[in-house]
Amino acid sequence: MPLVGTPVPRLEAPDKVTGAACYVDDFALPGMIYGVTVRSPGPRGRIRRIRLGDGIPWEEITVVTARDIPGDNVVALINDDQPCLAAEVYNHAEEAVVLLAHRDRALLERARRQVHLDVEPLPPVLTIDDALAAREVIWGTDNIIKSYLVEQGDVEAALREADLVVQGEYETGAQEHLYIEPNGMVAVATPEDGVTVWGSLQCPYYVQKALMRLFRLPPERTRVVQLETGGGFGGKEDYPSMIAAHAALLSWKAGGVPVKIVYDRTEDMLATTKRHPSRTRHRTGLRRDGTLVALDIDFVIDGGAYSTLSQVVLSRGTIHAAGPYRCDNVRIRGRAVATNTPPRGAFRGFGAPQSLFALERHLDVVARAAGLPPEELRRRNFIRRGERLAVGQQVRDGVDLPALLERALQVSGWTERKNRFRQENQRGTIRRGLGLSCFLHGTGFTGSGESHLASTVALEGTAEGRVRVLTSSTEIGQGTNTIFSQIAADALGVGGEIIEVPRPDTAAVPDSGPTVASRTCTIVGKLIETAALSLRQQLLEEGLLPLPYTTGDFQAACAAYVRQRGALRATARYQPPPGIHWDEVRFRGDAYGAYSWAVYVAQVRVDLCTYQAQVEEFWTVQEVGRVVNPTLAAGQIEGGVAQAIGWALYEHVAWQEGRMANCRMTDYIIPTTMDIPPIHVWFEEAPYPYGAFGAKGLGELPMDGPAPAILNAIHDALGVSICRVPATPEVIYDALSREEALV
Amino acid sequence: MSDGSGQQIDLHFVVNGQAVTVRCHPMARLLDVLREELHLTGTKEGCGEGECGACAVVMDGELVNSCLVPAAQAAGVQLRTVEGLAAGGRLAPLQEAFLHCNGAQCGICTPGMLMAAFCLLQHNPHPSEEAVRVALAGNLCRCTGYAKIVAAVARAAQEGGDAL
Ligand code: FES
Ligand code: FES
Q1: Which distant-in-sequence residues (6+ apart) come within 8 Å of B65 by Cβ?
Q2: Could you tell me if A433 and A717 are in contact, meaning their C-beta atoms sit under 8 angstroms apart?
């Protein structure tokens, strides 16, 4: 019986429900000591001197500064501009400067407070506007980390000729990932044996690359092992390289003693990455009938002090900024700027939630100005198969956006509810509204990213007649283990019970790329499918496998092969789908192999006494290609919607001098059981021939649509347009007061 | 966490049906006593300040956040942790329900969720959905959006009856 398409239970769940699963905080090695980090005091300055204070037995404590780094002082990623430890200058608050290690954590904490940094503060750049003004230059020559331009047609001419032009400005705040497991690493490092780290992470080979550069070691002496990982969402994409480096530097200096660094919640919130804050300006031209004739979009994200992944976040955000619509004249200017704040990094959606928030919020404003219902404006402008997106990509997916919209309107009872709320909103202090959003999300890396990665997977048949799926793709809660075993079993034509998915360890698995960009199931899964077919072929060619065969026959064939011929192994390496072309220089072409598409509807209530908005019900209709595991897939949608509800309404990062002021769970509010409404999940499946069994990307999609749908619903409920997230009670109160002042 | 200074006490309590004695500082966090002295690492730390519920355990029938409980307060109590849910190598119905419903994604909130749900079902074997949501409101999950956790608890209540 095929497993793809069925709700196979999560493979590692038994360990997770008994407490047996081993996370980094649970992992210990004999003689292990602990490491802590001393951090910069302000957003920008020069380090004059590091003083070790009184009353601490310093001779017992391992102390590491930038001078102790054997190789290059960088966290190697894209631009290599981020130091592993600040040496002469610091460029953001909470930047790592000194590392300490000792076995006694109480002593270590006292010691940390006795490391005094004599610094000379420099004027910081703290906002997007300051960065663009460039009175202080903190990055490159103009504070601009990267810019992109997408252009088609003649936007200025089209705006001049339009019947209606509508402008708007939209802002989104930083967001903390708030995985419930804070970051952590354990390292053992010596010049003789090299470096090994174990920890909570998404991308083993990113960590390896950073460690190799830092210690000048070859890959075979730089080993990275993932432990059970308590959530990632992008937050464990690049920062684990930093913590791994710190733990390894301490171990190296301490003579190879194992060193563990686990951040407490506050340190994790203060120092690690966040979602990029953004500001988007729209100028939109329409014809009288609602046809979009010009989209002029200026999209800016705040990358923080170092470039990390900002240019890639920017490229995805820029490409998604024009949404799932057809328009002949489009100009999208995307810029990532530097500020003296902790570097922003990957976060589920990767730039697309920001630019799609602006677009989908703006289109509701445009619809009102045009005198059209919001759904009608979108219906008239949806892109269709065969037409071209703003980057010039022809849509090949078998998507039917009008049908997705129809379904969403129907399952949410859109018209009936709208009428009812219009009546009910006349009285009392509760206002209800409905809002929707229509959007797309590109599967896998942007542009030529997948070709550059050239991911590889391997399948191995064992002497016991089992098959091991070897990849560096990590299980971080999304279901990697389970879907990989489903895909491998079906491609091999065997039962899932003989498939094993070992935990990624760079000493044992090939580089299947990072666990990001909604690529694991579709792209890495496809490689597993291909490798499985070739493994099966080997057995057939050797005449070891009868046709048809049972799982038992297959196991016997594997065992026989290994006995007679030695290792049984098949690999597959990424090949771009035929006909895909991306021009990195002109930033045009096929940005992604495929897109997932969706229409989301939110019902929101706003209490006019407390100004609190709450989502009461949520409907999601999405086309994601083949659904490999419906239960896990629904879990991704529900979890993503919940995270996006947090971003839309509750999760406010309060910055003070470039430092997160509300750096505790008490003050940074994520949704609880009481804040998350019923979330309805519908899948449409149009199989994508180059994804595993037809799958497309899924994990990030649900982060894109909820925020604009929710704020559109608030607009519907109150008649007031709110253009920023999070729409906290303060923001709603302000918007209402401004509206009243105008009346 | 011991800092090697200050007075230590001998603490006696029962955890998962077993009497134990631990030598520790009276103000040590119960969470650390469980994880470090007794090696019961199923109980997790998500915040250390009583906000996330990852460290939840059942103490004398009540749900507590073990990161906020000083060890001395555990003298003579009956404790149940996630390791004490399965019996005789068999998962409890609540654990089975989490498996079946995909109630655990990354799994880091799961031990605390299970203990909160266990405690609820002890007091109220057939809770409404609202009652489940209220009982789990002190346990944060960043992965699931809670839907499948709430469904798992409802399923356990339906199937497990009193044998939880
Ligand atoms: S660790 Fe105890 S409540 Fe979060
Ligand atoms: S399953 Fe990951 S936090 Fe709940």
Answers
A1: B50, B53, B55, B56, B138
A2: yes
Token pair of B26 as six digits: 């009276």
- Span A539-596, pLDDT tens digits: 999 999 999 999 999 999 999 999 999 999 999 999 999 999 999 999 999 999 999 9
Q: Which ligand is nearest to the CA of B46?
A: 1
* Strand A330-337 versus strand A144-152 pairing type: antiparallel
| Peptide bond preceding A726 in cis form (omega within 30 of 0) | yes
Are the CB atoms for A524 and A475 separated by under 8 Å?
Answer: no
Q: Which two tokens stand for residue A430?
A: 């509760």
Q: Which atom of ligand 2 is nearest to the CA of A181?
A: 3
Query: Residue A579: enclosing H or E segment and its boundaries?
Result: none
Atom of ligand 2 nearest to the CA of A231: 2
* Rounded Cα gap, residues A21 and A475, in angstroms: 12
- Measured CA to CA, the distance from residue A214 to residue A230 in angstroms comes to 27
| Coil, strand or helix at B114 | helix
* Interior/surface letters A418-457, b for 16+ CB within 10 angstroms, e for the rest: beebeeebeeeeebbbbbbbbbbbbbbbbbbbbeebebbb
Chain A residue numbers with beta carbons less than 8 Å from the beta carbon of B5 are 106
Check CB contact under 8 Å for A673 and B137.
Answer: yes
Q: Which domains does chain B have, with CATH numbers?
A: 9-84 (3.10.20.30), 93-163 (1.10.150.120)
Is a pLDDT exceeding 60 seen at residue B102? Answer: yes
Say whether A106 and B2 touch across the interface (CB within 8 A).
Answer: yes
Closest CA to A388 of A568, A152, A141: A152
DSSP designation for A87: -
End-to-end CA distance of chain B: 33
Alpha helices in A142-295 (DSSP H): 155-161, 204-215, 239-253, 265-271
pLDDT at B5: 53
Pocket flag, ligand 1, residue B50 (CB < 6 Å) = yes
Predicted ipTM?
0.97
Letter string b/e over residues B34-50, b meaning 16 or more CB atoms within 10 A of that residue's CB: bbbbbebbbbbbbbbeb
- Centre of ligand 1 to C-alpha A180, Å, is 10
pLDDT of B3 over the 60 cut: no
Q: Does this model's pTM top 0.90?
A: yes
Interface of B with A in 31-50 (CB under 8 A): 35, 40-49
Closest by Cβ to B98, choosing from A13, A104, A177:
A13
Which structural domains are found in chain A, ordered by start?
Answer: 30-122+178-271 (3.90.1170.50), 278-446+586-742 (3.30.365.10), 449-573 (3.30.365.10)
Q: Provide the mean pLDDT of chain A.
A: 97
Select the residue from B65, B66, B143 to test the A interface by mutation, using most A Cβ atoms within 10 A: B143
* B3/A104 Cβ within 8 A: yes
